[in-house]
Amino acid sequence: VGSEMCIRDRSINSKFELVKFKLFNILKNGGLEEVCEATYNGIEYGTSLNTGARINCDLDIINTLSKEFGLSVPVFVDNTESVNDLHSIDSQMIELRVTKNKNLKFEVAE
Fold first, then answer.
1. Contact 16, 61 (CB under 8 A)
2. What does the pLDDT read at residue 2?
3. Residue 89: count of CB within 10 angstroms of its CB
4. pTM for the predicted model, two decimal places
5. 81 alpha-carbon distance from chain centroid
6. Three-class SS of residue 5?
């Protein structure tokens, strides 16, 4: 069961650039508990990850699923002022940022 578990982990995790999924917990009695917890650099997404890292993990997941299912959809990303470097994706990305500008500003990146 252990080697089968590792193969499945590697198979799924190899598709992602940033995110790694923890798929099993080994119980004290030696049994396995199925879980699905996204992690980034060993930090669990749902507990201790900061906003910027969460946004980049979200983009990595969207990008990977888009590739797997052959889809390309525009992605709206809010709170981007909390991210130093956004993870690049193969889809159109619309960034929403808070600014002090009184007028709405549009920028197009090539």
1. yes
2. 58
3. 19
4. 0.82
5. 18
6. helix
